[in-house]
From TrEMBL:
It comes from the Bacteria. One of its GO terms (biological process) is pentose-phosphate shunt. This is 6-phosphogluconate dehydrogenase, decarboxylating. It catalyses: 6-phospho-D-gluconate + NADP(+) = D-ribulose 5-phosphate + CO2 + NADPH. It comes from Streptomyces albiflavescens.
Length: 477
């Protein structure tokens, strides 16, 4: 067997298979391997003509087919299956070789694996890959972590197979050491959840408050997609909403059970944000909304609860314009929260993540790709230390212009009893950030009252406690 393959892919389910094809279509020789050989054979039969593949059956054969330093990409399920594959291949590798994990791994697992393999001199490259099966084949957004050295060897290949943004820039960058790539992919997915939830709320408002049909709403989304909301998720929303179920002739969206599932990356984003102390309320509401939708019994038991009296809505088209404002403003808030989490993770783990570069590689290929990411990139490029996206003048001005409509939409939603957790959480975040004073001062007073937890004063340094049970004098703690 020749040792000619520049990269190897093991795990040939749809994502692995399509990534292998993408490498081959871009002129690389790709060794392919799968636990059950049938998948390898199927790939060779169907797509073997697309480029140079080296089909291998055993782990040894697979490793032997790779040029050195070896680049071995594993595309298996996150969790235990990934550890199993690493344990199978690591003993066959040599210092300088690279294992690239392109699955949706938890970044803490990636950190653990990177540390263990580093002792063997092997580079472990935890890599976020976004774009679904189409992206894997035609150009995903790629978020590799790991050592600089591994990126020097791997980067040019990833750049070649990645999506390209409108200005031609490849949608891949070396995100940072160890788990940085998978962390950023996790936040990408958290933002994806928030985007989808906000779009869902906009849809429901247009339907239940403004009275539009799914087909009409599809047209509204198509129009929005030509403006500042231009994005993949808005585009596919129009497709889904205009689809008619062949069996019943009903709108497809009406025959699908309204219980959203999840594989867990959105939940991780929230769990980690809680640990880091980062308020990602919009993302959290999106995760909770999916979870609420799945509580069929609870929902059935609650259906008889009282709702508001029906009220008259003004002109539907004007309301739709307001919903666009609310959606856009809330979207800015979701990204603000997501980027805040990346900043916090980067500080906590010393990753030195370039936020402008992250925005840049999300401009193409990935699920949250959107025209406005180019403006986020520009904002961070101009000011890498931007405290928050909301501190960027352009975004601040846009929200200022949108806020009256945003508030009106929430008033209408509240009046009509349409749940808008995403829109509402986003506005509450915005209002809380800009507030001169927050009731946190009262919280501190309560904590001091019942637990002597102390507080800080606005007028001098130090920690203080009031003798609540005594003469209420203040002592320095
Ligand atoms: C991507 C997607 C991808 C996957 C999600 C779905 O970036 O290509 O995010 O990773 O579609 O994990 O997530 P849920 O099943 O949790 O909705």
């Amino acid at each position: 067997m020749s040792t000619s393959a520049q990269i190897g892919v093991t795990g040939l389910a749809v994502m692995g298979r399509n990534l292998a094809r993408n490498f081959a279509r871009n002129g690389y020789t790709v060794a392919v391997h799968n636990r059950t050989v049938a998948r390898t054979n199927a790939l060779m039969e169907e797509f073997g003509h697309e480029g140079e593949f080296v089909a291998t059956e055993t782990a040894k054969e697979f490793v032997a087919a790779l040029e050195r330093p070896r680049r071995l990409m594993i595309m298996v399920k996150a969790g235990e299956p990934t550890d199993t594959v690493i344990q199978e291949f690591a003993p066959l590798l040599e210092p300088g070789d690279m294992i690239i994990d392109g699955g949706n791994a938890h970044f803490a697992d990636t950190r653990r694996r990177e540390r263990a393999l580093r002792e063997q001199g092997i580079h472990f490259v935890g890599t976020g890959v976004s774009g679904g099966e189409e992206g894997a084949l035609h150009g995903p957004s790629i978020m590799p972590g790991g050592s600089k050295e591994s990126y020097e060897s791997l980067g040019p290949m990833l750049e070649k197979i990645s999506a390209k943004a409108n200005d031609g820039a490849p949608c891949v960058t070396h995100v940072g050491p160890d788990g940085a790539g998978h962390f950023v992919k996790m936040v990408h997915n958290g933002i994806e959840y928030a985007d989808m939830q906000l779009i869902g709320e906009a849809y429901q408002l247009l339907r239940d408050v403004a009275g539009y049909s799914p087909a009409q709403i599809a047209d509204i989304f198509r129009t929005w997609n030509t403006g500042r909301l231009d994005s993949y998720l808005i585009e596919i929303t129009a497709e889904v909403l205009s689809h008619v179920d062949a069996a019943t002739g009903k709108p497809f969206v009406d025959i699908v059970e309204d219980r959203a599932e999840q594989k867990g990356t959105g939940r991780w984003t929230v769990q980690i944000a809680l640990d880091l102390g980062v308020p990602v309320s919009g993302i959290a509401e999106a995760v909770f909304a999916r979870s609420l939708s799945g509580h069929a019994d609870l929902r059935a038991a609650s259906r008889g609860l009282a709702g508001p009296k029906a009220t008259q809505l003004g002109e539907a088209a004007a309301f739709a314009d307001r919903v666009e404002q609310a959606l856009y403003a809330s979207k800015i808030v979701s990204y603000t929260q997501g980027f805040h989490e990346i900043t916090a993770g980067s500080t906590e783990y010393d990753w030195n993540i370039d936020l402008g570069a992250v925005a840049s590689i999300w401009r193409g290929g990935c699920i949250i790709r959107a025209a406005f990411l180019d403006r986020i990139r520009a904002a961070y490029d101009a000011r890498p230390d931007l405290p928050s996206l909301l501190s960027d003048e352009t975004f601040a001005q846009e929200i200022a212009a949108a806020q009256d409509d945003w508030r009106e939409v929430l008033v209408a939603a509240t009046r009509q009893g349409v749940p808008t957790p995403g829109f509402s959480a986003a506005l509450a975040y915005y209002d809380a950030l800009r507030a001169e004073r927050l009731p946190a001062a009262l919280t501190q007073g309560q904590r001091d009252f019942f637990g002597a937890h102390t507080y800080r004063r606005t007028d001098r340094e130090g920690s203080f406690h009031t003798l609540w049970g005594g003469d209420r004098s203040e002592v320095e703690a």
